[in-house]
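Retry 2 of 3 after timeout on previous attempt. Resubmitting structure tokens to design endpoint.
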């Protein structure tokens, strides 16, 4: 019961995805093939046609965490900018299956999907060495880490946000990769959660080494993390918020804009060896304002439910008491999940400096879009959306035809 309440609380929190932060087929076109076609066209027109990345042709960018919400958009943007893009995935069959194709769409078109478990440091280094042999001068231009633990509990956080990410760094250093781009999180600025401390521990390791240059990007929140109540609002349920709905403010960033920023950081010298807080173009948005925007998008009158903030403390304290009394890891993890929910209910995820705001898509534009088209399924941020099925996709194709 406690865990169910905590799970709901986390799902309703204004920026949960700050914490946790493509389809592939046997016949996909590889980046090298696309570049060859572009070369042929360019030659025919006197060299007038260039790939999106221009001088990036042939340079290799390796994306870890490529199946994640931001990771798959980063893969697509890397391809768009002209990099020879390597998407590291733990289980290639899951991406290439019918279900994987429905979940990931066309995110991986033009990229090379390589199966590699980033938790296996030796295997990762071996994989990067193999990739390096195909790189100009035998050197990978960039490693981009979009890794993030799903749960945020201590064991997962230190396994992924710290150790697996450290494996990517150490493997990159072992093969003389040039630049490391880290997708971190804005919320580490006030670190009282396990996953935040794990992220900061890795950031310190990245900043302490000198073999690779780096860019650390800390986004405020993702659009998906503030879209979790779409389905319930469409069904007539109230929009749930904590306190009076004005306790926190944020300016989330779209996945496409964030992916662009991450890939641009590979060559942008102003971001060299920097830690960058990053939000979207919106002015500060309270949770109540987000609810009003969502109701406007779905064409319904605003209907709010205000949950008291003390609910978090009651749940967390009870879970922690059981954890301490019975030395229970299960209840300790549940208490940490509750603390994660509370964090996002009371902390701003907001940048106000113009230099820390990026992108063109506003949250209202995003809401208007998903109100009509529906949103991408994600079991961690959407409350009642269902994963796509083959039957559903076939019916969708029939309607489109």
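Retry 2 succeeded. Sequence:
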């Amino acid at each position: 019961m406690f865990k169910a309440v905590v799970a709901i609380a986390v799902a309703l929190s204004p920026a949960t995805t700050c914490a946790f932060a493509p389809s592939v087929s046997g016949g996909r076109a590889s980046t090298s093939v696309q570049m060859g076609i572009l070369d042929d066209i360019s030659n025919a027109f006197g060299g007038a046609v260039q790939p999106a990345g221009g001088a990036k042709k042939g340079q290799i960018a390796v994306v870890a965490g490529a199946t994640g919400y931001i990771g798959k958009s980063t893969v697509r943007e890397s391809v768009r900018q002209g990099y020879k893009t390597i998407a590291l995935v733990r289980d290639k069959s899951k991406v290439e299956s019918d279900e994987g194709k429905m979940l990931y769409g066309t995110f991986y078109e033009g990229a090379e999907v390589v199966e590699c478990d980033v938790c296996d440091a030796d295997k990762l280094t071996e994989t990067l060495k193999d990739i390096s042999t195909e790189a100009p001068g035998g050197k990978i231009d960039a490693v981009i880490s979009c890794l993030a633990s799903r749960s945020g509990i201590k064991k997962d956080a230190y396994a992924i946000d710290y150790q697996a990410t450290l494996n990517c760094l150490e493997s990159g250093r072992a093969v003389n990769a040039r630049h490391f781009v880290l997708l971190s999180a804005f919320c580490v600025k006030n670190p009282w959660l396990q996953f935040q401390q794990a992220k900061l521990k890795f950031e310190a390791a990245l900043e302490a080494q000198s073999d690779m240059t780096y860019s650390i990007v800390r986004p405020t929140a993702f659009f998906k993390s503030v879209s979790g109540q779409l389905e319930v609002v469409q069904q007539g349920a109230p929009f749930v918020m904590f306190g009076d709905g004005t306790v926190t403010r944020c300016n989330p960033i779209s996945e496409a804009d964030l992916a662009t920023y991450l890939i641009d950081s590979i060559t942008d010298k102003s971001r060299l060896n920097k830690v960058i807080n990053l939000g979207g173009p919106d002015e500060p948005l309270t949770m109540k304002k987000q609810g009003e925007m969502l109701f406007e998008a779905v064409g319904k009158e605003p209907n709010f439910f205000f949950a008291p903030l003390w609910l978090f403390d009651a749940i967390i304290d009870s879970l922690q008491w059981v954890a301490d009394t019975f030395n229970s890891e299960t209840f300790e993890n549940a208490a940490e999940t509750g603390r994660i929910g509370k964090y996002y209910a009371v902390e701003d995820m907001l940048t106000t400096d113009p230099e820390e705001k990026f992108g063109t898509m506003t949250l209202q534009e995003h809401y208007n879009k998903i109100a009509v088209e529906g949103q991408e399924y994600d079991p961690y941020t959407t409350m009642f959306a269902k994963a796509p099925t083959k039957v559903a996709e076939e019916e969708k194709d029939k309607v489109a035809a």
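Attempt log closed. The CA atoms of residues 187 and 322 lie 28 Å apart.
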